[in-house]
Amino acid sequence: MATIRDVSKLAGVSVATVSRTLSHPDKVTEKTRKKVHAAIEETDYKPDVLARNFRTRRSSSIVVLVPDIANPFFSRVIRGIEKQAQILGYSVLLGDTQGMREREITYTKMVNTSQADGIIQLDSHIPFEDQNKITAPIVNACDCVRGTDLPSVQLDNISAAEDMTDHLISLGHKNIAVISGPEEHSITNDRLSGHIKAMEKAGIHFDTSKVTYGDYSIQSGVEAAEKIFNMFPRPSAIFCMNDEMAIGAIHRAKQIGFSVPDDISITGFDNISFAEFCDPPLTTISQPAEEFGTTAMTMLYKVMREEELKQKYKLLPFELITRQSTGPAK
Amino acid sequence: MATIRDVSKLAGVSVATVSRTLSHPDKVTEKTRKKVHAAIEETDYKPDVLARNFRTRRSSSIVVLVPDIANPFFSRVIRGIEKQAQILGYSVLLGDTQGMREREITYTKMVNTSQADGIIQLDSHIPFEDQNKITAPIVNACDCVRGTDLPSVQLDNISAAEDMTDHLISLGHKNIAVISGPEEHSITNDRLSGHIKAMEKAGIHFDTSKVTYGDYSIQSGVEAAEKIFNMFPRPSAIFCMNDEMAIGAIHRAKQIGFSVPDDISITGFDNISFAEFCDPPLTTISQPAEEFGTTAMTMLYKVMREEELKQKYKLLPFELITRQSTGPAK
DNA sequence: TTGTATGCGTTATCAC
DNA sequence: GTGATAACGCATACAA
Predict the structure, then answer these.
(1) pTM for the complete prediction?
(2) Residues A163 and A149 both lie in one domain
């Protein structure tokens, strides 16, 4: 493997000039540049990435913290991150935290040791030991930490939940149950706020007891639905905070013998690929999953380069997708 | 940040000894080791990963080549890889290839530049420019390259497809259509072989025209099913090579007004999380997805350390999961 | 604009 | 078993 020294000899310039030609071409005359490039060509020189990383204290890679990569929504976001990262010259290190704080910290520390230059956090924690001290370039995506000034990209969850609830109300539903995500998640709070807003706007009393909590898994949707079906009077609609739980709820409804949407309307959130092919197809909120990834990566890129962010908190658009899992209240 | 030099001074030994204590403890006396560790403790010394990588020409990270990370089966495999990698002290670089050979090569080259120490390939290509020259530690998982001697871990696809077909035959089905994956995939060929084997064993004529090809997406299942429903005589069962296509086929069947399994039995492959919650729940083959990941990573670890592999070609066990998408032939 | 010289932090070679 | 020291390949401060 040719080194920078081989190139410099062949080109008849110093190693410094070769280095400059590559890193700061503007500081080198056109003529020298040409000589150097010719020598690079001839020697088939490829800069030693490891040496460069070592010398510059940068690795050109970023780590993405994700609660669970097997979640179909997150995996699409990551696809977006990866796509954009490659365009910008970065590698993506996978940090599947499994919701464990310990793993989160481990991965975060890779920035301290310069193994990564920045972090994209898809969960709503501050992934630093000292919560008050942000020690690395970071962008928060999808589910965002409250009460911090981390750059973030998320959905307008409040409006989305409001629109979805409006939709149910317009179908005549008044007694609406909610299957929520974990209480500490910020998107959970936002979506609940939006739901309440719509209810109050319509003059319908919102009752906290109608809210059950799941963990975004299908199984938790099944269990939450079970509780809801035992409520009295029985709700005529369920607003679920993701598609998996909605699918679980539909499953349970059908098991019991309820028809969806005739006996009960059920809505999802995310528009995962299965939503369209459920029985009945799921009314849900479509999120631009990949765009979360590309946007977050682009923002992180600027943060790492210490450029100013024009917009520190981005909101991505959603779309209400009306399918057959919702219908008129009886 | 303390360096190895600080530690050596405090411990009253040379930097060489500190380095040895960390990398080859057996070459240092107990007493010195203690001194060094005490000094490390006191200075809170953390070895500089970048310097070490540079010096040793190793990065302690591996790259995983995956056709599409948003595929629910692959994302579970990757979860397994990541888990095991962390245990073994490796980081995982994500190489989502989107089926593009160009991206595959790009990622593979990271091994040449020592940015990665090895590769786990989840697709059935040889990811090197010169197909005949394997230039890096690599393990092939899930869908494996034919006619090479790459270490691999995969399912006994032949037996699995055979068992599934046996199941259909035992229900009285004779006219069985197949929704296959892309023709060039090795798992496609294996599963088809198993299917044919079962058919012949039962004395049923296998007809190539009953095989349609999809690309593993739900939509392609819908389209393939459409073709199958137009066959004459109409098959009474469809053997699909993954769950997504089966879900698509069920969707199309119900659209047309066919009952599953009364009018037609449909089977999947993979047992993704939605399989259990389909309507009807899907008869399928369960694969130990995470175990693919952990096994592949463990094998790669040995390859990278140039240890002998006891078993170069591993087969993981499957399980036939009988649910309600299959029933007796009319 | 270009060259010289130095150092990044570690590991490994070779004496002792 | 331990220490002194070279070397890894590159980027940069400074001098020219």
Answers:
(1) 0.94
(2) no
